């Protein structure tokens, strides 16, 4: 058990001294995941709203498809995007493989269904009378939408945070699309996989602790929004 | 609504910060042995500093590295599987192959040596013993240079390795060593990675010195005619660096516990007599 306590001690040292390599990895992770979550939110929240309030054929099927794609396997997303952006693929000319942009694309695909699906239920949970009241008071379509979204704001924040929680913790697509390049596309999860394979536990444990702390604070934020929302 | 706005603003600022800094980068696909052993961490930084260029290292097996080169996803490859390298150049995927360095493969296993291979210098005979005793053997199983060598040796021994005892890991050299250690099994490993890992493992060197275990490394530029987008000049600069007296000295001086991990071969070490 000696090596384990030694590794934990070293990992704490790395965190406290804000080790450069560790900081770079954490920063890369946050940058990629926050960017992909932001893009997924810009697309996902309005889309979820439209699906929720809209009346169209096959709405039920769309919702089933959405709920299914919330569980997309990360490696399958990685594989699919890889085959598109490799130099031999249809989007090869852009040279995106093994860049942070490639990881953002993969994580965008992972986060969007979650944000859309949770935005749908967030919007649906709002009393239909909110929209009706807004309209009676003379609001146009955009103002009505704003009124409904305003009522649903906490639940929508929860949706965005859930999307972020999914991508910050995923390793499959980040590994395949980023290539785990030191100082460039090495994220917390890919670094943990690599360091464990190398038997270097201290950096892996330090990253694991930080990842858990991020997950914890993300969930604390969600919880506090839930409480305020209800 | 205010919280949402603040959140969005923060996201946007992050987005902007990601588009900054466009320095020169080239991509090197290489085997896990050069990266896991720590060699690249010694050889690359002086190059990056001198030529103001970042080298993005993608450490995979030789098979995958060559595939990345073939598809034009990297600019240069540093690998160790001579037959595959020659085929790569012959098919026109790569140009200007240069020898860089060599070391040798060894067979490591539990010090208790349940298959009794210690003392032998014949790799095929040792593998036959491992198979006959059904002692665990961890294979790379990833088409890497080491995996190619495994297959070559099994073939020479006239054995098709299969069964519970033959574990196909599908992972890098470091991970496979860890696995062999945990499973108290045997594995084939390049000396460089072994020296970098040996103090963390309970495994011991049980077989070395068979001439078939020679392990040469070559560096190849991806063919710029086939893939016009590759950074050919920069790739050639990196090849020049690896094979320059300075690069070769860095390789030769890279030691762990007083032992060289790789022996440079690109330039003669003695100055020629006049």
From TrEMBL, chain A:
Signal peptide extent: none
Compartments it resides in: Cell membrane
Limits of the ABC transmembrane type-1 domain: 26-222
Topology term for the membrane: Multi-pass membrane protein
Listed CDD domains: TM_PBP2
Keywords: Membrane, Transmembrane, Transmembrane helix
GO biological process terms on file: transmembrane transport
GO CC field: plasma membrane
TM spans (from-to): 32-52, 64-85, 97-120, 154-181, 201-222
UniProt entry tagged with the keyword Transmembrane: yes
InterPro entries: ABC_perm_TupB-like, MetI-like, MetI-like_sf
Principal location: membrane
Listed PANTHER family: PERMEASE COMPONENT OF TUNGSTATE ABC TRANSPORTER
Protein name in the entry: ABC transporter permease subunit
Organism: Candidatus Abyssobacteria bacterium SURF_17
UniProtKB/TrEMBL annotation, chain B:
Signal peptide segment: 1-22
CDD domains referenced in this protein's UniProt entry, alphabetically: PBP2_LTTR_substrate
Keyword Signal: yes
One Pfam family named in its UniProt record: PBP_like_2
All copies of domain PBP, residue ranges: 22-246
InterPro entries from the UniProt entry: ABC-Tungstate_binding, PBP_domain
Keyword terms, alphabetized: Signal
UniProt-listed PANTHER family: EXTRACELLULAR TUNGSTATE BINDING PROTEIN (PTHR37945:SF1)
Protein name (record): Tungsten ABC transporter substrate-binding protein
Native species: Candidatus Abyssobacteria bacterium SURF_17
């Amino acid at each position: 058990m000696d090596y384990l306590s030694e590794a934990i001690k070293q990992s704490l040292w790395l965190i406290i001294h804000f080790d450069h390599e560790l900081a770079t990895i954490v920063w890369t992770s946050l940058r990629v995941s926050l960017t992909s979550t932001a893009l997924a939110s810009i697309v996902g929240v309005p889309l979820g709203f439209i699906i929720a309030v809209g009346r169209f054929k096959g709405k039920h099927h769309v919702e089933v498809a959405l709920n299914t794609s919330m569980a997309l396997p990360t490696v399958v997303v990685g594989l699919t995007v890889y085959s598109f952006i490799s130099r031999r693929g249809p989007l090869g000319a852009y040279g995106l493989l093994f860049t942070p942009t490639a990881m953002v694309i993969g994580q965008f695909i992972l986060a969007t269904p979650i944000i859309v699906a949770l935005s749908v239920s967030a919007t649906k949970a709002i009393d239909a009378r909110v929209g009706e009241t807004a309209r009676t008071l003379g609001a146009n379509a955009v103002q009505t939408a704003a009124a409904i979204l305003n009522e649903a704001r906490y639940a929508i924040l929860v949706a965005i945070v859930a999307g972020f929680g999914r991508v910050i913790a995923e390793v499959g697509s980040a590994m395949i699309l980023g290539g785990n390049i030191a100082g460039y596309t090495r994220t917390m999860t890919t670094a943990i996989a690599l360091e464990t394979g190398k038997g270097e536990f201290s950096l892996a444990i330090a990253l694991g602790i930080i990842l858990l702390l991020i997950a914890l604070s993300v969930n604390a934020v969600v919880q506090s929004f839930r409480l305020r929302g209800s | 609504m205010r919280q949402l706005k603040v959140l969005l603003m923060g996201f946007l600022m992050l987005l902007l910060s990601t588009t900054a800094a466009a320095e020169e980068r080239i991509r090197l696909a290489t085997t896990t042995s050069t990266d896991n052993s720590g060699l690249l961490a010694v050889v690359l930084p002086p190059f990056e500093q001198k030529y103001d260029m970042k080298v993005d290292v993608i450490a995979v097996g030789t098979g995958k590295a060559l595939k990345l080169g073939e598809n034009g996803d990297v600019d240069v490859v540093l690998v160790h599987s001579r037959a595959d390298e020659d085929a790569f150049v012959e098919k026109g995927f790569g140009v200007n192959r240069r020898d860089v360095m060599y070391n040798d493969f060894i067979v490591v296993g539990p010090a208790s040596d349940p298959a009794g291979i210690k003392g032998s210098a014949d790799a095929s005979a040792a593998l036959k013993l491992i198979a006959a005793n059904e002692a665990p053997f961890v294979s790379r199983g990833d088409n890497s240079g080491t995996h190619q060598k495994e297959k070559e040796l099994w073939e020479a021994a006239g054995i098709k390795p299969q069964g519970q005892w033959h574990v196909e890991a599908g992972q890098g050299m470091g991970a496979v060593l860890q696995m062999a250690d945990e499973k108290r099994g045997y594995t084939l490993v390049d000396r460089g990675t072994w020296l970098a890992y040996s103090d963390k493992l309970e495994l011991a060197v049980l077989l070395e010195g068979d001439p078939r275990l020679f392990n040469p490394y070559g560096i190849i530029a991806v063919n710029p005619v086939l893939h016009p987008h590759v950074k050919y000049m920069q790739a050639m600069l990196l090849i020049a660096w690896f094979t320059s007296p300075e690069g070769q000295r860095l390789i030769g001086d890279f030691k762990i516990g007083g032992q060289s991990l790789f022996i440079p071969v690109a330039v003669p070490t003695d100055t020629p007599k006049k």
